[in-house]
Amino acid sequence: MKHSLLCLALLAALSATTGAEAIRSEPVTPLAAPEVIDAGKAELGKKLFFDPRLSRSGFISCNSCHNLSMGGSDNLRTSIGHNWQQGPINSPTVLNSSLSVAQFWDGRAANLQEQAGGPIANPGEMASTHVLAVDVVHSIPGYVDEFQSVFGSGEVSIERMTAAIAEFEKTLVTPGSRFDQWLLGDDGALSEQELAGYTLFKQSGCVACHNGAALGGNSFQRMGVVEPYQTDNPAVGRAGVTGKDADRFTFKVPTLRNIELTYPYFHDGAAETLEEAVQLMGRLQLGRTYSEKETADIVAFLHSLTGKQPDFKLPILPPSSNQTPAPEPFAKKS
Ligand code: HEC
Ligand code: HEC
Predict the structure, then answer these.
(1) Which is deepest, 44, 50, 156, 171, by most CB within 10 Å?
(2) Residues contacting ligand 2 via CB (< 6 Å)
(3) How far is the CA of 254 from the centre of ligand 2 (A)?
(4) pLDDT digits (tens), the chain, 334 positions
C-alpha cells in the first residue's frame, strides 16, 4: 500500500502543470493567478452567483452556501437548503474548484458548468427549476442586455447561465499563500514549525493523496484506508456514480488550499477542528498516531496554505421587472 501511494505521489508531481514556475521541486506546486478567458462573461457569472432570485424562495444564492467572505463555504456541518432543509453533506469550497478533475464529493459532475445546473433545480437546495430560473432572468431587462453583450443575443438559457457562472468560478483561484512564496524561493516565508509540518506531511505520506497545485482535487481515494471511518452519514461516495463496490467510501480528495477557512471538515462535516482532522487522517489513512507536537506542526503548515482571497466589488444586481415571477419564500412543495 505504502509503495503504491508513493508511486501515485510521484506521478501526480510529474503531471502537475497548473502551477506558476516553482524554484523548488516539490510534490506541491504553486498556484498560478487565474487566467480569465472572457471578463464580460465572468462578470455576468458573478452576478448570477450572488443572485438569490435563481432560487424558488428568492433568498438563497450560490453565495449562501459558498460564502466568498468565508473561504467559499458555509462553515456548517451540512448546508441549509430551501425551507430550512437539513442538507445531506458538507459544502465544499468553490475556491480553486476549477483545478479539480470533477465536481462534487463523488465527482458526479464532469466540470463547473455541468455542476452549476444542479443546485438551482435541487429541491433540497435552491428548489427552483431550470425553466423557472431562465424565466426569472429573462424577465430582468438589465440581464437581457448583459446576455446580449456577452453572448451576442439576448437569449437566456440554462446553458448560457451556467457557462457564465463557471467562467466566474474560474477566477476564484487563490495564489500568493506563504507556502507558495516559499515554493517560489522565499526562504523566509515559512516559520521553522511550518517547515517541520510540511516535512512531516511529506514524509508520513499525506502527500500521496494531497498533492499538485491544489493539494487534492486530482484523484478519488478511500476514506479509511487503514481503519474504517465511523459516520452516520449515508453517503457512499464514488460508488454512487460508478456502481462499483470497490468505489464504496471513495471520495474526491479535498483541496487543502485555504483549509483554515473551510471548517468543519470531511464530507459529513464531523471534524470541527484541523487538529481533529489531521489526527484522524494520520490514523485512518496512514496508520499513524501523531503526538501533540507533530499535530501542531502539520496544522501550522496547513495554515500557511491560505492564499489571496477573491477581491472584487460587490456586484449590484439589476432589479426585477413587473413580469418577474414572484419569489415563493415559504413554498412547502417544490
Ligand atoms: C443549499 C446550499 C448550496 C447552494 C445554494 C449551492 N451549493 Fe454548491 N454545493 C453545496 C453542497 C452541499 C455541495 C456538495 C454536494 C455533493 O458533493 O454531493 C456543493 C458542491 C458544489 C461544487 C463542487 C465543489 C467540489 O469541490 O466538488 C461547486 C463548484 C458548487 N457547489 C457551486 C455552486 C454554485 C455555482 C451554486 C449556485 C448555482 C451552488 N453551488 C449553490 C451546497 C450548495
Ligand atoms: C489515501 C489518501 C489520503 C491520505 C494518505 C491522506 N488523505 Fe486527507 N483526505 C483524503 C480524502 C479522501 C479526504 C476526504 C474524506 C472525507 O471527507 O470523507 C481527505 C480529507 C482531508 C482533510 C479535510 C478536508 C476538508 O475540506 O474536509 C484534511 C484536513 C486532510 N485530509 C489532511 C490530511 C493529512 C494532514 C494527511 C496526512 C496525515 C492526509 N490528509 C492523508 C485522502 C487522503
Answers:
(1) 44
(2) 201, 204-206, 208-210, 221, 223, 225, 251, 253-254, 256, 259, 262, 265-267, 277-278, 281-282, 285-286, 298
(3) 7
(4) 444 454 444 444 444 444 567 789 999 999 999 887 899 999 999 999 999 999 999 999 999 999 999 999 999 999 999 999 999 999 999 999 999 999 999 999 999 999 999 999 999 999 999 999 999 999 999 999 999 999 999 999 999 999 999 999 999 999 999 999 999 999 999 999 999 999 999 999 999 999 999 999 999 999 999 999 999 999 999 999 999 999 999 999 999 999 999 999 999 999 999 999 999 999 999 999 999 999 999 999 999 999 999 999 999 999 999 999 999 999 775 4
Report CA(285)–ligand 2 centroid distance (Å). 8
Report yes or no: 71 and 261 within 8 Å, Cβ to Cβ. yes
Protein fold of 39-169? Cytochrome Bc1 Complex; Chain D, domain 2 (1.10.760)
CB 96 within 8 A of CB 66: no
Q: Please identify which of the residues 125, 167, 169, 294 carries the catalytic annotation.
A: 125
Domain 2-30+176-303 CATH superfamily: Cytochrome c-like domain (1.10.760.10)
Helix segments in 204-265, DSSP class H: 239-242
**Which runs of consecutive H residues, i.e. helices, occur in 122-270?**
130-138, 141-151, 158-169, 178-183, 192-203, 239-242
Residue 323, C-beta contacts closer than 8 angstroms, at least 6 positions apart: 139
Would 2-30+176-303 and 39-169 be classified into the same CATH topology? yes
Determine whether 125 is an active site residue. yes
CA-to-CA distance for 313 and 54, rounded, in angstroms?
A: 21
Please identify, by atom number, the ligand 1 atom nearest to the C-alpha of residue 82: 1
Q: Compute, in angstroms, the gap from residue 118 CA to the centroid of ligand 1.
A: 8
* Among protein residues, the one whose CA lies closest to atom 2 of ligand 2: 209
Would the pTM count as exceeding 0.90? yes
- Provide the residue ranges of all domains of the chain, joining segments of one domain with +: 2-30+176-303, 39-169
